[in-house]
Amino acid sequence: MIPAAVVYPYEAPSGFGVIKSLYLAGVPIIGLNHKKHFAAFSNKFKSLLCPDPIRDPNGFVDFLITLGKKNEKSVFFGALDIVTALILLNKKALSQYYYYPYLDDKTIDVAFNKWTMFCIAKQLAIPVPDTIMPSTIEDIGNADLPFPSVVKPLAHFIIKEGGLSKIEEFSDIYKDAKALEVLNKRELAALCHKALGEGFEIIAQEEIPGGCQHFYETKFYVDQKGHMSDITVSRKIRQLPADFGVCSFGEIAHCEVIKDYTIKFVNATNYRGLGELEFKYDQRDGKFKFIEFNPRANQWISITTFSGNNLVLRQYEDFAGKIGHEKRHRIDKTKWFDLRREIGYWARYGLDRSSPYYISFMHQSKSLSEGNATEAFLSSDDPILSIAYMYECIKIAVRKIIKHVIFKLTGIDISRYRQKV
Fold first, then answer.
1. What is the CATH number assigned to the segment(s) 212-410?
2. Mode of pairing for the β-strands spanning 163-165 and 131-132
3. The pLDDT of residue 121
4. Omega within 30 of 0 (cis) for the link into 241
5. Which CATH number fits the domain 130-206, given the four candidates 3.30.1490, 1.10.10, 2.60.40, 1.25.10?
């Protein structure tokens, strides 16, 4: 019997991208989420509620064990760092019920520690931005870091003695900011003093100039024997927030240089599974600089499927065997977008002509309606979900417009995306 796939969370574009990639191949799917979500209207998978791994990590693991006892051994897919970490830290218990490319302890550190991955890239002669890992304020004073720079947490959590602590606390304190910009050594010292005082491990890194169009990603799968699938290269077109944000619109790209860097990095770390490396092109010296490594299916993994390189199916078949009946699907989709984030982008920047990130509604709409673009959730063969999703998008648009009007009238910005250091 072919095992099913278990995916968490199905509410994230990355999670639903995994689901899309699997149901096109006819794979039975169980989708997990910690709260009710419009994606549960999909007729392509069975949805179940589970504990929130951020607020109740032990409960989440216990749920997986209980679910595993009720079903045949399944192939597991995680779409968040916290889920990947919990699976790996509890592999002794979970490996009885789930197939997964479990990593050894050494590789786990590479997967979640930005400083470790930066050091490995540097050792491999992969170009990197200037980076420091300060542990004291004195480290800041002695550092020769160019400005502007950005401060990031070392990871979304701290792994210590086989457990997790400070899970997503940095994001909670700094309102979901992926990175915080500092313009001089005084600002850097103040921010690091605050972050270090709160017990966070951080890195400070040179900010490479240029918009998100200079961000490139490589997506890949490495099987249990260490064989890497074809690498898909993609490039961001827009992101939200526009400075340090999450992709809202991206496209397939071609770059042999970062493919070579990816192969070097993966071989050196002995990594297995779905993964993604991020790079930014530095116009000053013409080099692609390593930014970070993500040990999971990333946010727009489905673009690999619709461009003809179904990496998710590679992982499934690595454990379940060739299923031999993959449904035909279009392979001419070379652009991907998340309509909800694109609405957020328009509400924040499309209504403000003075913004450097301004885009007209007509230009944005035209770019999204091109025939080679696919949306994160919408699907012609999943009509009920598509209706629920469009209703959600309309609600988001109304809320964003109200926030914009309030800001224009009162100067009060209640948007979660505006960050100040």
1. 3.30.470.20
2. unpaired
3. 97
4. yes
5. 3.30.1490
